[in-house]
Amino acid sequence: MSKIRITKQFSFETGHALYGYDGKCKNVHGHSYKLSVTVIGTPITNRNDVKFGMVIDFTDLKKIVKEEIVDQFDHATVFNETTPHIELAKELKDRGHHVILVDYQPTSENMVVDFSKRIMGRLPDGIKLFSLKSLYSTNITHNYRIIIYLSYTIPCLIYLYIILIFNI
Ligand SMILES: [Zn+2]
Questions:
Q1: Residue 16 C-alpha to ligand 1 middle, in angstroms?
Q2: Which of 25, 34, 65, 159 is most exposed by smallest CB count within 10 Å?
Q3: Domains recognised in the chain with CATH numbers
Q4: How does pLDDT run across 103-118, given as a tens digit for each residue?
């Protein structure tokens, strides 16, 4: 049976600050993210399965990514809890702001790795995460940087993208 890839795109806005960084991203600010989630699997062959012929129901994939990423990160600010930013995070939380504490430097690269773990933990048996492509705005002209997470190595993309490889 052929392997089929399914891709769905999501958009959200997230803030962050990079403690110790020597550029503008040391300040609290936000980005617009466009996340493309691609999963791979074989279409269900059991005629008695209500999802017969599907790799995964788009509605199910949407539910997973919405619950694990969009609903949690949209209009939230991400701080590294292992830095003095923990104090700022506590202050904002106490004032009712939507804050996410993580145990890593919240660069877009690391956030894509985090997203991948969250999605992989929810995928049904037989479905694997193939790639995560994250485009995020870098300035007011709405230029986007691309961070791509791939579960397979595609050497030709190394020049264009940052690739995080995960062996499945
Ligand atoms: Zn930033």
A1: 6
A2: 159
A3: 4-165 (3.30.479.10)
A4: 999 998 899 889 999 9
